[in-house]
Amino acid sequence: MVVALFAGLASHSAEALDAVAVRQNVPAIDLLPAAEQHRVEGDRIQVSTAPGPDGIVRRIEVRAREPGTTSNWLVFALANNTDEQLDRLVVAPHFRMVGSGLVWPDLGSIRIVSLTPSQGFRPEQQNDPGSDTFLVTLDPGATVTLVAELRTPQVPQLYLWEPEAYKAKVNSFTLYYGIVIGIAGLLALFLTILFVVKGSVMFPAAALLGWAVLAQIGTTFGFWARVFDLSTETQQIWRAGGEAILAATLVVFLFAYLNLSRWHVRYGHIAIGWLVFLGALIGLAVVDPPMAAGIARMSILAVAVLGFCLIVYLSTHGFDRAVLLIPTWTLLLIWVITSGFTISGAFLNELVAPALLGGLVLIVMLIGFTVMQHAFAGGGLAGAVSDIERRALAIAGSGDIVWDWDVGRDAIFTSPEAEQLLGLKRGSLETDAAGWLETLHPSDRDRFRTALDSVVDQRRGRIAQQLRLRSQDGHYMWFSLRARPVIGSDGEVVRCIGTMVDITENKTAEERLLHDAVHDNLTGLPNRALFLDRMDAALGFARIDETMRPAVILLDIDRFKQVNLSAGVSIGDSILLTIARRLTRLLKPQDTLARLSGDQYGIILLSEREPERITAFADTIRKTLRTPITFANREIFLTASIGLALVDAEHGRREEVLKDAELAMQVAKRIGGDRIEVFKPALRAQKPDRLGIESDLRRAIERDEIAILYQPIVRLEDRTVAGFEALARWNHPRLGKLAPAEFIPIAEETGLIVDLGLFVMDRAARQLGAWQRVLRLDPPIFVSVNVSSRQLLRHDLIQDVKGVLARNVVIPDTLKLELTESLVMANPEYAAQMLSRIRDLGAGLSLDDFGTGHSSLAYLQRFPFDTIKIDQQFVRPSASGARPVLLRSIVAMAHDLGMEVVAEGAETEADTIELARLGCEYVQGFVFGEPLTAEEARRLIAPVPAEGQRAAAGR
């Protein structure tokens, strides 16, 4: 008793149950609502029995058959209140699709290991491969408590069946299962046979789907378990693998039927990746069937939904195969949704699962019909066709317009497609030859009529013409007509038949290409090729009419490269467009304006014949170009160098006229720009040779041909000379004095600017040192030297500055290096490092042309400049007399940054007064004189006393 007491305390106990009343006329009773499920530690359970007729509750203990640390139990009680002995079957199915679960589903297992009664004989287990079935005998008036040992915690269903009713139910479902499996097998075999006969790729895909459905149905119905004697664990693997195979075959069928590889290669990649994933899922089914089945079910849902969206999309884009598949795939989507509700437990009816599997077979049957309908459609065309049929099919496939002229009846037939293109009424082009010719462009009628007459008269030949037909709104469309005559038995032409093709787009593209070939892409003006062609025509007119004197005017924008660098290429293009519009407004219809190169324009002037009026017109062009161009509250002033050549009897070719005008323009630019130069034969002797200039420039420094001039920089406070800007001038032995614009660009291109810049810096520093030793002014005089981009980008610049300062003793910060704003902003990080090191050497730094580039104030604070030079476009007043509003702001900003201000471009006394009022320290301009030689600059600073001259001579 003590041992029993301790055993009872250590084991799990349960309260007494309510017994389920069993009646004779009830075929089946659901026992799960009345059953209690327990999970206990250990291998035994103690339960209280349901009270019998005497009301006594007993305690029983049941030991588990299968050893383990935990055990699962199901306890229920049955009461026979009748006067007869009752035999009933307790049935727990191994697998039930209803409520099996979407994620990590229950794929079936042995549910009840043993069934122990509280009294009477132990229930006898029946031979039932699909469920755990036990025969229970209930005596009259007895109440029996049954304790079921469970293999798994899940019991999907537990029913108490009347044996004959259960047998009838099994037999009825067995018949249904056999019919469905038979239909599925025949369908899979039929689709396989069709694949062998037809050979289309759609049939093996459909056959694979049919076999996959057959395998899935056989597994779910337990057919394969009976045939191959499969264990419950093996059946789990088969169920999970079957669902993965079903998902894979759906992907294969959808890809093959819709032929997705023709739409985009990405579809093929997606399908292959999906199949590889599902193949791995089949391997996972061997290791973990529930996980594999859950993923496969989600995959089937994804295939159904995404496939439906894809089918609808392709259907809306005119793909016939997709249209045929819409009804079947809609049923598949409904089937998948219904299956989801079933396995989630929303539908509990016993008939739902068999009905769903039967519906799956029906869907595969519909897929087979769809595949056959598409594969065998148009079978009449699969055989041999005649040559005439083949030609008719080719014309129908090409979409060409049929053109047929019945010569005997003089009736022309044209396909309705032509009338649709032209917007004409149906039958408008079905008329006689004369009426059809009326729709042609007047320029094409005679040519087409001649072609028709030639074919009829010669009884051979072809018509191959491009012609224009008038549309409803009056415009013309281009067509290409190709036709040939048909000869009758009498040798005469009975009809002429062929095709027409719309070539309007080709003609438009051809015209556009022809236009672009002879016109400038930016301005739309004629280019050099068309300009030369029109010059030939002008020369021809001049030979016929002696009173006509064509004039060729070439103009080149001065300093346009600097405008592009400072303002940007987009603004530069806008400036070129503005110039083209201004010049166009000055011309008359008989004149020609062309863009010959980047900033060079050419004009053929025919509207003026008198030389005085021609030169006056050229001056009008010059004044028009001087008008400032405004962009974003910023005025840009431009000038042009204009060369003019008058055509006379000596000019035989267009090249000679163009060269003369170019020579006159180059002379105008060399002199300084913003001027008109009329060609004279004497200019040919002065024509500069660029290669010669380059060669001479290489030796100019050695020959001491480079002269240094000094332009004064005046202190506005007392109007004294504060310093100079060193400017290089070339005294060429043959060409004379050359302006910087004539040789500096060549020096930049060839790299000679580095040697030239070092030469100017050394000479200017030597002269500055000599002035400072003699004059000893306070504050000291300074000299500014320009630095080019090639010099700044060389690492040797620091060594050059260091060497110049070592050779020439000057007061610190009085030798100033001028760098343009666009130059330092091209590489601000590198420029900041270089300038800081140069400043440490003792050289001053000046920011030149401030306001013309794209600078950043953040970088400006980092640059160690001590002086800002304001560009002259901010100094000069506008046409209304007002100065740019930014001038005051620039001066104030420079002072806030601790910099001095030099204003360039002062031309009048009023300019100096206004600049002094704004706070500028220094001014530079022609109002204080032209660039001077060193001796002239020395006399401008202060007169040299006699003893000073002697001392200087002694030194």
Automatic annotation (TrEMBL):
Annotated transmembrane regions: 175-196, 203-225, 237-260, 267-287, 293-315, 322-345, 351-371
Keywords: Hydrolase, Membrane, Transmembrane, Transmembrane helix
Keyword presence, Membrane: yes
EC number: 3.1.4.52
Domain PAS residues, every copy: 412-459
GO molecular function: cyclic-guanylate-specific phosphodiesterase activity
Superkingdom per UniProt: Bacteria
EAL domain span: 690-945
Domain GGDEF: from-to ranges: 548-681
Stored SMART domains: EAL (SM00052), GGDEF (SM00267), PAC (SM00086), PAS (SM00091)
Keyword Signal attributed: no
Pfam families, per database record: EAL, GGDEF, PAS_3
Domain PAC: 463-515
The protein's name: Cyclic di-GMP phosphodiesterase Gmr
Chain's gene name: gmr_5
